[in-house]
Amino acid sequence: MEYNFREIEKKWQHYWVENNTYRVQENNEKQKYYVLNMFPYPSGAGLHVGHPLGYIAGDIFARYKRLQGFNVLNPMGYDAYGLPAEQYAIQTGQHPLITTQQNIERYRSQLDKIGFSFDWEREVRTCDPKYYHWTQWTFVKMFESYYDTEKNKALPISLLVEQLEKDGTNNIHAATSNEESISAEEWKAMNEEEQQRFLMHYRIAYQAETKVNWCAALGTVLANDEVVDGLSVRGGHPVVQRNMLQWCLRVSAYAQRLLESLDNLQWTDSIKETQRNWIGRSEGAEVEFRLQSNDLPITVFTTRADTIFGVTFMVLAPESEYVDIVTTDEQRAEVEAYIAETKKRTERERISDRRVSGVFSGSYAINPLTKVAVPIWISDYVLAGYGTGAIMAVPAHDSRDYAFAKHFDLPIIPLIEGADVSEQSFDAKEGIVMNSPVAELEAELKANGGLILNGLTVKEAIKTTKAYIAQHNLGRVKVNYRLRDATFSRQRYWGEPFPVYYKNGIPYTLPVDCLPLELPTIDKYEPTESGEPPLGRAKLWAWDEKNRQVVDKSLIDNQQVFALELNTMPGFAGSSAYYLRYMDPNNTNELVSSDVVNYWKNVDLYLGGSEHATGHLIYSRFWNKFLFDLGTAKTEEPFERLVNQGMIQGRSNFVYRVKDSDKEAPLFVSLNLKDQYDTTPIHVDVNIVSGDVLDIEAFKAWRPEFKNAQFVLENDKYVCGWAIEKMSKSMFNVVNPDMIVERYGADTLRLYEMFLGPLEQSKPWDTNGIDGCHRFLKKFWGLFFDNRDSDQLAINNEPATKEQLKSVHKLIKKITADIENFSFNTAVSAFMICVNELSQLKCHNKELLEQVVILLNPFAPHISEELWSLLGHTNSVCDAAWPQVNETYLVEDEQQLTISFNGKARFQMNFAATASSDEIQAITLQDERTIKYIDGKTVVKVIVVPKKIVNIVLKG
Ligand code: ANZ
Predict the structure, then answer these.
(1) What are the residues whose beta carbons fall under 8 Å from the beta carbon of 494, sequence distance 6 or more?
(2) What is the residue with the minimal CA distance to atom 22 of ligand 1?
């Protein structure tokens, strides 16, 4: 019987839906396994063959685990808020929900054709109020929490208030941007507004005036990872720095935990390293330099406290609050001009571009160890948001300081071993020193309790200096992180509304039992004429505190009815905890119930692109840790094992147009003849090319200007050229999975996607190779039938031969190991080898073929269901048990050795695999051929190398 994949695939896709084959429920009898794919943003272009790569890999693993007896959760959903839908709405006036829903439908129909084992009853969409209810709820919880640095967890802000009432800030250990200490009396004396402003410095979700990446063209703020080289990642529009009142998340409070718990994750070293760098832990010291004029302390952050003797100037970031204080009247005009200049540059430019610029403030500060006065400069190579925004410059040891000193002709003091202290201009009596003090100075210092670094390694010197600084109250040991708090406001429509309203300019959150706060409808999706975000256009957008409901804006009286927040949340809000929601997607009382999350815990295997290394994968880890502190999540980390699939690139095809050929009837020349002409290559739609041969009629129909094209052929064919490029519409190299499914079937598509190469590598798509996978399935199918034209099953129950058993058990072993190692391409080859062997061995053994069917199920679910049922089963093959390898079948029972005489190979002999060297020697010497080659000579020695060779050394 013929392998009719179209019918088979339709039949089983229908069966799975009818029988809820992929419905999963918590089951305490079974061990859980949670496979998750990063959910897609449903774009208007639909899926191309690159998109399902990770889903197929995840599905193979999910099916494999199920066959091994695990209770497998394998859900899918949509990251449905986002900019493209909003921009389309701005252009067309269409509500982004409509385009989003259309795109989702298209995605769903494409996904359904590929035979995934997703439990669609658990689908989530981030734009669905049932879903974002819990995104808003988490935000409210973050607003109502602070981070306790002693207990190392988030705690209710009410506990902080209790502390303030009792002791003021005295016993508070909290992550905060506030340096101010207050007493209980001062706290109590504050009015409501002042107290709220004070608490804002502690909340995990807080509002602050922050420098943001403002993109005027998109009318919104962008996250750092949404900006590259001063341009927005989406759209490539210019981005500038601007101060704005923003919602922020105190991600930085979790820096140390984010760093520590990375170690035990099964993620690639490169992603872990990227995250470590992003978190950027830096151990150093804060040291106080005092202003010469009025003794005011300016704190610097340094990782090289030991170089303090080489400080020749200080530098402040242009935004530093000290700038105003240190700028003298004579220097003011120059300083102000410089500051205006630096505003134009983004932080990224300031870090990457090594251009030296700066201005002298007019003031001096005293080095606390040497007591030498050094000039204070202002320059944008010092960043405001890192450390204290002020540095001590050591031009002899730091390259940026060096470049600066050279440029402005500032002194450079080398701290080189062997340098004579007395040559350097500081007063040793004040009790300090450096690398190589002269002997008597060292003695003097010792007597005075000074700092001696002589003979120490850099590490030891840093440690000793830090201790000295702390002891003498000149500063303190300090750990800094590069990780910044996340800005959480976007001036967009198509995102989660903040459940926040304003009373006297102070934000309050909605009661959690009033959530979700639904996104209102508006008539236009642009910012308002007065520059407010699009939600400024919503009429029904005010909060009636008393009646606990949304009411018309015209009712705002700031007594009972208040204005609602106009910003919406950014893309990462909805994607940060979706993995928890899949566990309990329809729960209307909680994000996820305790029982359910206790069962599923966290994701065992997470698949997605490595481009999320610092965005999504940091935010969701942070978000999860917060939920863990709350008790909602049950594990410190959301994703145990992470696999990053590579990109599938496009394989473009070209035709060669002869330059200057007739415009009406352009001439195209085949690839191997093109050198005889002067030609221009033109991309041609890969879907009208097969095996690099152009379908000429389809080409003529493709574009009207080629209607009358002429062709110079080779062997009656037009051969196209090709190149590997990004898969994109503009290169006409996009391959749609629907087309492949239509032509070859989903099982072939799945096998071929895996066969293309190692999962984690990027590789080009080449439809030309797909036949091999399709033929393999046909050949496998053929093993079950007498011949192509008969629907008579050829299956029998005759005992399997040794070779057949060996072939299948080799396969069981290989497929099991390959799946565990994510080596799916080699697994596909192993199937091909085994099926070839079984064909040659004419294997129709039911028991063995059944095992191959189960092994193949994760890769090719439709054909395996069909064959499983043909073998007489009435259940789904998904509920079969994964075959176990029997090692005894794999033992080789024979070994072949080459028999040689004086090193010359003469013939081969077979021996039992278990034969000893002595047995091999004895049998060889009795063989007729051996006797012939000995030819009466003396056997001096017989060397036996098992499994390889026997060498007989002869003399005479
Ligand atoms: C003196 C010194 C001497 C430094 C030396 C380095 C080398 P990481 O490791 O990244 O934490 N620094 C401190 N705050 C800065 C800021 N806001 N903008 C730019 N640079 C800043 O780097 C810490 C080092 O970077 C600090 O140690 C400081 O320079 C500089 F041989 O102090 B160092």
Answers:
(1) 81, 82, 83, 85, 86, 89, 96, 127, 525, 568
(2) 303
- CB of 105 within 8 A of CB of 80? no
Q: How far is the CA of 478 from the centre of ligand 1 (A)?
A: 13
Contact by Cβ (8 Å): 913, 895? yes
CB-based contact 626:142 (threshold 8 Å): yes
Residues with CB under 6 A from ligand 1: 282, 301-304, 307, 317, 382-383, 386-387, 389, 391-392, 394, 397-398, 480
Task: Looking at the CA of residue 397, tell me the nearest atom of ligand 1.
Answer: 31
Residue nearest ligand 1's atom 13 by CA: 301
Q: Which residues does the annotation place in the binding site?
A: 729
The residue nearest atom 19 of ligand 1, judged by CA position, is: 382
596 CB burial (10 A radius; 0-12, 13-18, 19+): middle
Three-state secondary-structure class, residue 27: coil
Annotated binding site for ATP: 729
- The closest of 926, 921, 923, 927 to 941, measured between CA atoms, is 921
pTM of this structure: 0.86
Q: Which of 33, 147, 20, 41 is nearest to 609 (CA)?
A: 41
pLDDT tens column, 313-369: 999 999 999 999 999 999 999 999 999 888 777 777 777 777 899 999 999 999 988
What does the pLDDT look like over 75-124, one tens digit per residue? Answer: 999 999 988 888 888 888 899 999 999 999 999 999 999 999 999 999 99
- Regions in the chain scoring below 50 on pLDDT: 417-438
Task: State how far the Cα of 736 lies from the Cα of 13, in Å rounded to an integer.
Answer: 20
pLDDT of residue 443: 64
DSSP conformation letters of 279-303: H-EEEEEEEEEEETTT--EEEEEES
Give the residue, out of 386, 399, 480, 484, with the most ligand 1 atoms within 8 A of its beta carbon, to mutate for a pocket test: 386
**What does the pLDDT read at residue 298?**
95
Residue 567's identity, in one-letter code, is N
pLDDT of residue 432: 38
Distance 385 CA to ligand 1 centre (A): 13
Q: Are 315 and 391 spatial neighbours (Cβ–Cβ below 8 Å)?
A: yes
| 3 state DSSP class of 681 | strand
For residue 288, report the distance from its CA to the centre of ligand 1, in Å: 15
Distances (CA, A) of 60 to 266, 267, 853: 19, 19, 14
Residue 830 CB partners (closer than 8 Å, separation 6+): 810, 811, 814, 815, 818
Contact 861, 12 (CB under 8 A): yes
Q: How far is the CA of 295 from the centre of ligand 1 (A)?
A: 24
- Compute the distance from residue 816 Cα to the ligand 1 centre, in Å: 51
> What span, in angstroms and rounded, lies between the C-alpha atoms of 358 and 331?
12
Q: Round to whole Å and give the CA distance between 952 and 941.
A: 6
CB 165 within 8 A of CB 99: no
Distance of alpha carbon 110 from alpha carbon 49, whole angstroms: 11
Q: For residue 350, what pLDDT is reported? A: 78
Task: Evaluate whether 656 touches 612 at the Cβ level (below 8 Å).
Answer: no
User: Cα torsion for 449, 455, 457, 462, to the nearest 10°?
Assistant: 20
Measured in angstroms, how far is the CA atom of residue 391 from the centroid of ligand 1? 7
230-237's contacts with Cβ under 8 Å and 24+ in sequence apart are: 230/346, 230/348, 230/349, 234/83, 234/84
**Structure token digits, residue 255:** 């820096």
| 317 CA closest ligand 1 atom index | 17
Which residues have a Cβ under 8 Å from the Cβ of 911 and sit 6 or more positions away? Answer: 894, 895, 896, 897, 919, 920, 923
Q: Residue 933's pLDDT is what?
A: 95
| pLDDT of the residue at 440 | 56
| Residue 424: predicted pLDDT | 40
